[in-house]
């Protein structure tokens, strides 16, 4: 059985090397995979490109750029440079989507509005690079519980307010159920995004009690509280035709055999999402 | 030194009995206190009313009603009955504000939209009781990380959408910085609420890393990432003239001597909030 549009984000099997992740994906019936920069860097970009080509898999996205909320200065310049490298990596790896996690408040800084303005400015600074490489800056709103320390962009509406200041081929948004399911405006904001502005759709569940480490608190679809039907229907109604990823950060999931996890999440996709397509 | 509009929410010194909490508040210069139903119930309502009157303190609010998102049936009927008792208690204790925590998704239920509709319906069911007792149903939007298991009302905008369906003397909202600080729309929603719809303003900080138990993750104002100035200025500009509470759920705070905690939070109020008044 193959999984069509369903993409295994590599972070779901975090401890796999790039070669292992590609092999697991192929062996368990995937046609597409979401990559992360760290395992790519481990083997070097040239080798990574070769491995991906040999695998025959599509690359649905590259994670991640962003973390550019620091105040103007060397740290911010370095962050923008790193994002330019990430765009180049995405291009070489054959994906048109670089996922951006904005970054939190600078240490000791409480100016949330200012940090949010710097996200818009950073997208502007990267826009021409993105356009020339044919890679979209995919702004991922993160759940508000990460606003202080990880991402100051916390709703789809806010991500779209920024993305819409640029051409659709330059800036778009990521819809990850884990981050947006609670939002009373989620369905209307997905409709507002439309086909042009949805760069990636990701499915992940919200489980309770919230695990102690809130960075590793994600659930396999079907294990938690999210009703995937209305959000998926809204994404489809918006015209989204791309891959559908799953990205599970959870220590228990990471401890399991890679192929077992890859198969289980695909089973959930076939049960919960595919019937809606 | 007295603390004017600054109110010690009893949950900040959670393990104090009602008598102890009132005494601590008086001894440390408070003129007003926010009460919880459990310590009131421990001594009985009549005795609680007597203790409060003897203390000379205002009661800024009573926590809490709500938890009425269950599906129609005996459990929901019991929840509404309990809320009616809470309204009566608030009235007897001399406060016009009953803080409502909506409740989460019913066990095994993933219909977030339906649960939110039932909150509106519950407010409607309680509106006449509230009006006749002169107690406002103060809808508290809780941080989105509590959407599944504690409160399906997660933004000020959403709380106001419900409150505005009723007269201002019946339904209003609570603005607690801890819950709303991240919201890109927070300042405009505070302005929208205006004097008529802000039943309570509460100050509490967001600290990182988020403590393992997300119910006990609150910080003393000044210890975390929240800039209290813009939110406080917005609340004041809206015309709010009521008490300003602090409510700190944190095991380390609860473990300290009551008077020490009451004094420390008041110091923070004098430093961070009072200069803005």
From TrEMBL, chains A, B:
Record carries keyword Isomerase: yes
Keyword Calcium recorded: no
Q: Where is the Xylose isomerase-like TIM barrel domain?
A: 23-257
Q: Which UniProt keywords apply?
A: Isomerase
Top-rank taxon of the source lineage equals Bacteria
- Give the Gene3D superfamilies listed for this entry: Divalent-metal-dependent TIM barrel enzymes
- One Gene Ontology molecular-function label: isomerase activity
PANTHER family for the chain: HYDROXYPYRUVATE ISOMERASE, XYLOSE ISOMERASE
Tell me what this protein is called.
Sugar phosphate isomerase/epimerase
